[in-house]
């Protein structure tokens, strides 16, 4: 299995399409990559940004890459965003990493998603309030993958039997360019 990107005209006819190949496996990978297309967004200048998450088993972790394509589907570049989570697939079956993305007028990208324990994005470590519970994050990066900032949010203190807090579902920008995140939580919410 795999992912694809297909462009259609106004009548629903295919204009172009291609399979989404997973990023190259890290050195020492014994398994074929499992990949998932996390999202595609169009920039105001027509470029397409695709987020692809791949993982190679528990010991090699996961990676998230940002691919840039032109409006005709030709790949312009790819950068590993350096997003690492302790366990890319948690025991409850959720893939941790990026759950949504949006593109700003200047081409910056807004990413949001769940993580557990420590999140490393763009070389910056973010520690969630609870080591064994899921927390959420919101990050802004440039179109070349440089981290501008990252914020985490989750439960302010341990909540017994709650394993799902601070779950981002949607990120975006207001018409004034202000970033926002919307989602759900259980137990309590702490911003910052």
Topology:
Elements: E1 3-8, E2 14-20, E3 34-42, E4 48-55, E5 62-69, E6 75-80, E7 84-85, E8 100-103, E9 109-116, E10 118-121, E11 124-127, E12 134-141, E13 147-154, E14 167-173, E15 179-184, E16 190-191
Antiparallel strand pairs: 1-2, 3-4, 4-5, 5-6, 7-10, 8-9, 9-12, 10-11, 12-13, 13-16, 14-15
Short synopsis of the structure:
The protein has 192 residues and is mainly β. 0% of the residues lie in helices and 51% in strands.
Mean pLDDT: 75
Gyration radius from CA atoms, angstroms: 17 Å
Q: Could you give the order of the helices and strands?
A: EEEEEEEEEEEEEEEE
- Summing up helix and strand content along with how strands pair, one would put the structural category as mainly beta
| Strand ordering within the main sheet | 8-9-12-13-16
Proportion of residues in β-strands: over 45%
The unreliable regions are 91-95
- Summarize the amount of helix as a percent range: under 10%
Calculate the terminal CA-CA distance, rounded to whole Å: 38 Å
Main β sheet profile: 5 strands, antiparallel
Number of distinct helices:
0
- Could you tell me the number of beta strands? 16
> In one word, what is the shape?
globular
């Amino acid at each position: 299995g795999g992912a694809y990107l297909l462009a259609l005209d106004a009548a629903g006819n295919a204009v172009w399409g291609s399979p989404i190949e997973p990023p190259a496996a890290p050195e020492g990978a014994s398994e074929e990559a499992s990949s998932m297309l996390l999202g595609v967004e169009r920039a105001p200048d027509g470029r397409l940004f695709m987020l692809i998450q791949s993982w190679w088993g528990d010991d090699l972790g996961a990676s998230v890459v940002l691919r840039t394509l032109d409006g005709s589907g030709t790949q312009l570049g790819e950068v590993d965003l350096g997003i690492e989570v302790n366990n890319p697939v948690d025991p409850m079956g959720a893939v941790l990493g990026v759950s949504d993305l949006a593109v700003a007028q200047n081409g910056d990208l807004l990413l949001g998603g769940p993580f557990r324990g420590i999140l490393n994005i763009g070389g910056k470590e973010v520690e969630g309030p609870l080591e064994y519970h899921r927390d959420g994050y919101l990050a802004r990066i440039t179109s070349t993958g440089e981290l501008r900032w990252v914020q985490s949010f989750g439960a302010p203190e341990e909540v017994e039997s709650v394993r799902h807090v601070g779950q981002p579902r949607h990120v975006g920008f207001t018409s004034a360019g202000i970033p926002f995140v919307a989602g759900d939580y259980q137990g309590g919410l702490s911003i910052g």
